[in-house]
Amino acid sequence: MPEKETQSSYKKLFSNTIIFAIGSFSSKVLVLLLVKVYTTYLTPEEMGINDVITQIANWLQPLVTLTISEAIIRFGLDKAYNKKQVFTLGNIVCFAGLAVLGVILPVVTITGIADKYLNGYSLLLYVYIFSSSLKLVYSTFVRAMERVKLFAINGILTTLFTLVGTLLFMIGFKMGNTGYLLSIIVSDLISVVFLTFAAKLWRYFEFRQIDRELLHTMLHYSVPLIPAQILWLITNSSDSFMTTHYMGSDANGILSASYKIPNLVATVYFMFGQAWNMSAILENDSEDRDRFYCNVFNLNQCLLYVLAAGCLMIVRPLTAIWLGQDFQESVMYSPILIYSSVFSCFTTFLGSIYLATKQTKRSLLTSMFSGIINIGLNIILIPKIGLYGPPISTIVSYLTVFIIRAYDSRKLVPFDLKLGKLIFNNVILIAMTMINVAQPYVKSHLMSYIALPILFVIVLVMNFKSLWELVGSKLKRNRNQS
Fold first, then answer.
1. Which range scores top for mean pLDDT: 43-47, 286-290, 369-373?
2. Do residues 467 and 299 lie in contact, with contact meaning Cβ atoms separated by under 8 Å?
C-alpha cells in the first residue's frame, strides 16, 4: 500500500473513532448518570428482574434477526455488492424473524413455561425486541453507507429521548421496570423514524427484483454468527440466570450492579470498536494490512490497560459515591469483572478479523469454548463461593477464548501481539485486582491506598511510552518524506 494510502487508513480510523465517540459519549454519560436513578428507584429484586428481561431480549435478538446486521455492514461496505439489495434483504430477514417471534412468544406465555423469568413482561419484551432489532438494522446500514456523522447524531438523539422517557416513566409515573423498558422502546422507535427520513432510506427498498444469490451469500455469512453471538451472550448473561436460579433476584441485582464500573472499560472500547470494525473490512485486501492490524492492536491494548488500571484504582470510592446504599456489596466483585473486561475487548478485536475475512465459522467454533467454560464453572462455583463464582467464570472463559483466537486469527492475519507488553501489563493488573479483592478482609487499608496509585502510574508510564513511540515513528517518517 502506498504511504499516502497508509496514512489515510489511520486518519479514517482516528476520525471515525472521534465521531463515534461523540455520538456515543452522550448516551454513555447518560447511562452512568442513570445508574444512580436505577439503584435509587429500583430495589435489588427489581434490578435482578430487569437484568434478566434485558438478557432474554439480548438472547432472542440474534435468533430473530439471524444476525443479519453483521452481513449488512460487511456487504454494505463492499463496493462489489448493491447497497439497495443489501438493505432490502436485511429488512426482509428481520421482519420475517419478528413475525415468527410474534407467533411463538404468545404460546410460551400461555403455557407458562418461562414465567419464572418473563415475570409478566411478555408483550413489552416483544415490543422491546421489535424496536431494538429495527434500530440495529437501520443504524448498521447507515454505517455501511459510511455516514458516520449521521450515525453519531442519531446516538445523541436516542440519548435525549431515553432521558426524557426515564424521567417521565420511572420518576414521574413511578412505573419501575415497565418504565425502564418503555423509555428504551420509545427512544429506539424514534431512532428508526429519524434515520429513515434523515438518510432517505426508502430509496434503498427494492422489492421488485430480489437478489436470491446475494440473500444466500448474506445468510451463509450471518447464520454461523447466531450461535457465536448466543455463546458470547451466554458468557455475558448466564451469570445473571444462574445467579437468579441459585441465589435469587436480590443476589442478581447485586451482581448486575457489579458490572456498572467494568462496563466503563467496554464502553470506551465500543467507541473505538465501531470504527475498527469498518476499518478491518475496508483494509482487508490492502497490501499493508498486517502492519496496520499490528499498530492498531498495539494502540488498543495500551488504552485498555490504562483504562482498566484507572478503574481498579478508584473502584471503591466510585462505588461508594455512584451506587445506591443497597448495592455497596458489589465492590467485592467489580475488580475481577474490570480485569475480565480487558480480555472481553481483546477477543472482540480479534473477532473482527473473522468478520473481515468472512471466516464466521471460526468465530462460532472459538465462541463455543467461552459458553461451555462459563456455564460449567458457574454450576460448580456459585453453589460453593456465591457471587464470586460468576466473575471468576467470566475471566476464565474470556482468557481461554483470547488465547485460542490469538493463535487462530493470526493464521489469517499474521500480526505481532506484543507478547512482552501483554504479560507485563497483565501481571500489574492482576496485582491491582488482588489488592482490591483482599481489601475487605484486612484491617488496614493503607497498603492499598499506596500500592494502587503506584501500580496505576507504572501502567500509565509504560503504555504512554509505547503510544508515544508509535506516534513518534509516524511523525519521523513524515518528516523524512517532506
1. 369-373
2. yes
Q: What letter represents residue 277's amino acid?
A: N
Q: Residue 130 has which C-alpha cell?
A: 421489535
What does the alpha-carbon distance between residue 177 and residue 188 come to, in Å, rounded to a whole number? 17
pTM: 0.68
Report the pLDDT value the prediction gives residue 6, as an integer from 0 to 100. 47
Do 247 and 386 form a contact (C-beta atoms < 8 A)?
yes
Alpha helices in 386-418 (DSSP H): 389-412
Instruction: Please count the other Cβ atoms lying within 10 Å of the Cβ belonging to residue 116.
Output: 11
- pLDDT by residue (tens digit) across 237-253? 677 778 877 887 788 77
Residues 224 and 359 sit within 8 Å (Cβ to Cβ):
no
Range 245-273 burial, b when 16+ CB lie within 10 A, else e: ebbebbbbbbbbbbbbbbbbbbbbbbbbb
Q: Is the pLDDT of residue 283 over 70?
A: no
Residue 22, classified by CB atoms within 10 Å of its CB into exposed (0-12), middle (13-18) or buried (19+), is middle
Instruction: Give the chain's end-to-end CA distance (angstroms, integer).
Output: 19
Are residues 271 and 67 in contact, defined by beta-carbon separation less than 8 angstroms? no
Nearest CA among 415, 399, 295 for reference residue 303:
295
Residue length, the chain?
A: 482
Q: Give Rg (Cα) of the chain.
A: 22
> Residue 278 has which C-alpha cell?
469498518
pLDDT at 5: 47
Cell of 433: 485486582
Residue 30: count other Cβ atoms within 10 Å of its Cβ.
16
Q: Tell me which H or E stretch contains 244.
A: helix 225-247
Written as one letter, the residue type at 327 is F
Contact 295, 467 (CB under 8 A): no
Cβ atoms 345, 269 nearer than 8 A = yes
Flag whether pLDDT at 53 surpasses 90: no
pLDDT bin (cut points 50, 70, 90) of residue 479 is very low
Q: What is the pLDDT of residue 17?
A: 62
HEC string of 260-317? CCHHHHHHHHHHHHHHHHHHHHHCCCCCCHHHHHHHHHHHHHHHHHHHHHHHHHHHHH
Number of H helices, E strands in the chain: 18, 0
Which triple of cell numbers denotes residue 255? 451482581
CB under 8 Å to 328, separation ≥6 — which residues? Answer: 319, 320
- The C-alpha cell at 454 is 503506584
